[in-house]
């Protein structure tokens, strides 16, 4: 049959080259997932940042919830940005936990159906198509979709020569120098830069920026006329760091200081229900801004981010009870810390290298030393073929799926985001599977060596490897196994 489908728009089609995450997920189709009882060898997918550790608390809350709005109330449209009680409840929450330098009023809040929608909306309203936003790397991997798919902005990466130094106050000067260089280089390529976007704590590495660092970033923004936008969706998912790292400081807590370029009207925070509250299904995100023009332009687009009466009623009830909120936050932080300590202990024991963290739901795992077992390069402009992608697929075959660092524009190939909040023993088993995969790579590689030797038929290499003493027959057997291993390995690479 002839193809009668009409083409999509150019900008729609342009998005097909973005969103590799969607393609990676497609590759997993057909895999069966881990279940301790029914499928213990299934794939452990620790790629998604969700926290199931507070389910019992939430279920208890639902059981004890006295008032339930009528079906009619739930099925009505409701207000585009929800009822006024929601804005009041969120402003109270922010005043209690984010320590804003001036109290946040309900009219500073704009509710939307999630932070993803909010990022898209604010991107549209702070910059025009082809303008730029400076984003420190490694960045939240979906920023590319959020800022580029519809608003068509350019992400200008801000990359420290030693990644992760940026969180520490002692490196604030060099961090700003990198910001300055990235800004200049964007300008030289004709890109007008309109904003800085940070994620605090940083997804994917789980670190908080120090207050001093936030201050210098804010000054840099003021000096160059840029908005400072902070995605603070994991603000309260932090814990006392065994490594002495900083804890959460909100950009809203910075004092207005025009002399230093800190202009709080141009500093905006994003918050939501998905992470700290484990309520991703509610689809709620909040713009918190003291910039009336930004609020108004966003309100004009809120028809596309309409919130539901069920979500707003549930969330308002949950956070209005301050005792409940306090208990929830404390318990969540305690549980996150315990799970983090258990997971990192397992990583140490199994010799899986990682960077310590104390915020968000993730650990930045460093598998760079195993990249050498794969052919190709680390060119992320041709990412489907990078060694990191091959390693990712290899790990999937060994039963673990983690999000790749290159999706976060990580400057050091071989990093993966390990979400440690999965239920039960999954995290532990995932660590063991990673270790096993690394060992398999190492042993397959030495097999590979024998196989190559067979082509040049050098008896001497077999001698070096100690096969001579075991006789020719044993040597031939080793070559046969090596060939099988090599063929097996090739199959992984061509998945
Ligand atoms: C840093 C960050 N921002 C935004 C989002 C999206 O949040 P929402 O569920 O509110 O759309 C996520 C989800 O993973 C995230 O990690």
From TrEMBL:
<dbReference type="InterPro" id="IPR015421">
    <property type="entry name" value="PyrdxlP-dep_Trfase_major"/>
</dbReference>
<dbReference type="InterPro" id="IPR050478">
    <property type="entry name" value="Ethylene_sulfur-biosynth"/>
</dbReference>
<keyword id="KW-0663">Pyridoxal phosphate</keyword>
<dbReference type="InterPro" id="IPR004838">
    <property type="entry name" value="NHTrfase_class1_PyrdxlP-BS"/>
</dbReference>
<dbReference type="InterPro" id="IPR015422">
    <property type="entry name" value="PyrdxlP-dep_Trfase_small"/>
</dbReference>
<dbReference type="InterPro" id="IPR004839">
    <property type="entry name" value="Aminotransferase_I/II_large"/>
</dbReference>
<dbReference type="GO" id="GO:0006520">
    <property type="term" value="P:amino acid metabolic process"/>
</dbReference>
<protein>
    <recommendedName>
        <fullName>Aminotransferase class I/classII large domain-containing protein</fullName>
    </recommendedName>
</protein>
<feature type="compositionally biased region" description="Polar residues">
    <location>
        <begin position="450"/>
        <end position="463"/>
    </location>
</feature>
<feature type="region of interest" description="Disordered">
    <location>
        <begin position="450"/>
        <end position="471"/>
    </location>
</feature>
<feature type="domain" description="Aminotransferase class I/classII large">
    <location>
        <begin position="59"/>
        <end position="425"/>
    </location>
</feature>
<dbReference type="Pfam" id="PF00155">
    <property type="entry name" value="Aminotran_1_2"/>
</dbReference>
<dbReference type="GO" id="GO:0030170">
    <property type="term" value="F:pyridoxal phosphate binding"/>
</dbReference>
<dbReference type="GO" id="GO:0008483">
    <property type="term" value="F:transaminase activity"/>
</dbReference>
<comment type="similarity">
    <text>Belongs to the class-I pyridoxal-phosphate-dependent aminotransferase family.</text>
</comment>
<dbReference type="InterPro" id="IPR015424">
    <property type="entry name" value="PyrdxlP-dep_Trfase"/>
</dbReference>
């Amino acid at each position: 049959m002839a193809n009668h489908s009409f083409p999509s728009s150019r900008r729609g089609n342009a998005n097909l080259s973005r969103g590799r995450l969607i393609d990676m997920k497609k590759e997993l189709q057909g895999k069966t997932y881990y279940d301790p009882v029914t499928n213990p060898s299934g794939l452990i997918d620790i790629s998604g940042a969700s926290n199931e550790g507070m389910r019992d608390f939430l279920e208890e809350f639902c059981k004890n919830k006295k008032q339930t709005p009528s079906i009619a109330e739930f099925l009505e449209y409701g207000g585009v940005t929800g009822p006024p009680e929601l804005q009041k409840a969120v402003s109270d929450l922010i005043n209690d936990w984010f320590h804003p330098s001036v109290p946040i009023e309900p009219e500073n809040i704009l509710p939307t159906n999630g932070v993803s929608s909010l990022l898209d909306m604010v991107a549209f309203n702070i910059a025009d198509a082809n303008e730029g936003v400076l984003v420190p790397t490694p960045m939240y991997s979906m920023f590319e979709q959020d800022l580029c798919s519809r608003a068509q902005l350019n992400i200008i990466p801000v990359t420290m020569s030693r990644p992760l130094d940026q969180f520490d106050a002692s490196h604030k000067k060099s961090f700003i120098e990198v910001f300055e260089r990235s800004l200049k280089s964007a300008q030289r390529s004709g890109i007008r830069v309109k904003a800085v976007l940070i994620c605090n704590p940083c997804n994917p590495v789980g670190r908080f920026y120090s207050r001093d660092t936030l201050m210098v970033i804010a000054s840099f923004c003021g000096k160059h006329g840029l908005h400072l936008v902070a995605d603070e969706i994991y603000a309260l998912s932090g814990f006392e760091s065994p490594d002495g790292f900083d804890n959460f400081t909100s950009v809203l807590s910075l004092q207005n200081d025009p002399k230093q370029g800190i202009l709080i009207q141009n500093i905006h925070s994003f918050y939501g229900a998905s992470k700290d509250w484990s309520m991703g299904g509610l689809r709620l995100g909040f713009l918190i801004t003291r910039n009336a023009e930004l609020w108004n332009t966003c309100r004009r687009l809120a028809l596309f981010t309409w919130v539901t009466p069920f979500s707003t009623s549930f969330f308002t009830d949950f956070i209005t009870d301050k005792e409940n909120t306090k208990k929830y936050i404390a318990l969540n932080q305690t549980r996150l810390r315990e799970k983090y300590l258990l997971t990192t202990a397992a990583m140490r024991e199994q010799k899986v290298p990682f960077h310590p963290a104390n915020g968000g739901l993730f650990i930045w795992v460093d598998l760079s030393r195993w990249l050498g077992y794969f052919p190709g390069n680390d060119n992320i402009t041709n990412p489907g073929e990078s060694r990191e992608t091959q390693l990712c697929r290899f790990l999937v075959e060994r039963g673990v799926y983690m999000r790749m660092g290159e999706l976060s524009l990580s400057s050091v190939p071989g990093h993966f985001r390990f979400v440690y909040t999965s239920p039960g023993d999954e995290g532990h088993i995932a660590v063991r599977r990673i270790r096993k995969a690394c060992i398999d790579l190492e042993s397959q590689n030495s097999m590979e060596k024998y196989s190559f030797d067979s082509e040049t038929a050098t008896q001497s290499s077999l001698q070096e490897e100690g096969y001579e003493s075991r006789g020719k027959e044993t040597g031939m057997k080793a070559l046969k196994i090596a060939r099988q291993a090599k063929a097996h390995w090739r199959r992984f690479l061509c998945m």
